[in-house]
Amino acid sequence: MAKQLPSLWEAMQAKGYSRREFLKFCGAAAAVAGVKATGMASVVHAFENKPRPPVIWLHFQECTCCSESFIRSSHPIVSDVVFDYLSLDYTETLQAAAGHQAEKCLHDTMKNYPGQYILLVEGSVPTKDDGVYCTIAGRSAADILHETAKDAAAVIAWGSCASHGCVQSANPNPTSATPIHKIISKPVINVPGCPPIGDVMTAVITHLLVFGKVPDLDSQGRPKEYYGRRVHDTCYRRPYYDAGLFVEAWDDEKARKGYCLYKMGCRGPVTYNACSVTRWNEATSYPIQSGHGCIGCSENGFWDNGPFYRHLASFPGFGIETTADTIGTVVGVAAAAGVTAHAVTTNIRKKKIINDRIDRSVTDREPKEEGGDE
Amino acid sequence: MANSQAVTFHRVYVWELPVRFYHWLNAICVLTLIGTGYLIGRPLAITYSTEAYQQYWFGTVRFIHFVTAFVFFFNFLFRTYWGFVGNKYARWNNFIPFRKAHLQEIKEVLKVDILQAKAKGIISIGHNMLAGTTYFLSFLVFLFQVCTGFALYSSMSSSFLPKLFAWVIPLMGGDFAVRQWHHVFMWFFIVFTIIHVYLVFYHDYVEGRGTTSSMVGGWKFEREDVLK
To answer: Phi and psi for A154 in degrees, rounded to 5?
Structure first.
């Protein structure tokens, strides 16, 4: 049986918040979700009337860095998110309950609010050997995921593990770690990153709550709002790139001047994320600002695209230091050498070739005085 | 001379103007794309006394690469079209070996090229079958470079054409992989150019039919007895 949940406004009133505080909160949420000022009324309306959705947050093969990032979200502050506009019913990291109590929370939520709860998944699912590499309460991750996803209103894959498989699925992927969207048939919102930006995580949830629907997704299931542009496109060092001013070594003068880190292997040009716009830790900084190139942590298979300090990967099968350029140069030089050798042997044989080809009847004939062969 | 006969050579109009035009425009494009592409992959390490706002050379190199790519693409499309309407030497069936005789000719040309043997039988006056097959493979590489190149470009462009190729990125697993393969196949063009130019000179020499100049004037020369 589905139960009716209180709206956010009702929940806040019950906790003794004033109307003014509620409206301030609505304003912050609207700003995060990218709602324009004239749309404020719809945000307030949504939070006054829409039931506050329960949330199940699952942890599979992961390092909990997504949760760590999430609790550092600053806009809106995470305590608001967790305690006010969500009802976080089950999350292994933060919940007080343990053991059977925790399992009861999970099953109560699924039973009481089918089609209403939001499912957040952190971590990948191992599929090898019946999923024995990740089990909770004696059940495999795949089992739990199938069961919880069945009646979920929306499914969000937190981080690169749940979106792409991340480090567990890096070659040779011993557990057959699999991203969520390949396990369940429902549409999944992928929020990749290792971890994703906390503010982006809360913004995606806010979007779900305010508009009641999944944000616009790109072809890889990522919200366009935050993954539509490359880190490179909004990087403050971009002018150095266009000017051809590059850092050549970590300790050179050019590094001190803050030139572009492209030649140091920065993955900004091939990475779709919002780091250079939202930045991290209350918008303090992001990797490139701190002098280190982007490692492309929100891109599929980034662990296998190493080494991180070169922008071309080493070529598979040719040893760790061999890039496509090394092989290309060898092949190119070999071609040039082969061609030269060929020219030399042709030249050695030239007498025979000329003799074969020459037309003696013409060479032995004296040129006519007048008129041509025509 | 009792032991030899006078041989008459006939002029054969092999390469029509559109084919020659395509060839040289393509050559310019490929060389430009290799040059600029290599620079984009491995920018020069130059120290400047100027600030970023005072120069734009890397942006310009990229711009040239992109413009040339468009020219290359439409030129390639045009040549594909000409493969269906051009003369018999330009037709698509010169590029795909589907008869036994074609395979025989490939074997023959390989003997001439690698073993430096004297050609038995007759090498086609247009593309020889080995060349034709190699060009077909190179067309596939052209197509691959077009798909990957426009796919990479699609994220920085709002125009219609590059957007058509955006699907390549998720298919290949992300920009990084697409860029990597786009870069790898640059080396195909470099090696192709070296061998292609050399073999033109070589065949010009051993065949004596005007292979090199034919791409300028369009004419090749064939013995009368072969033409009959």
So the answer is: -155, 150
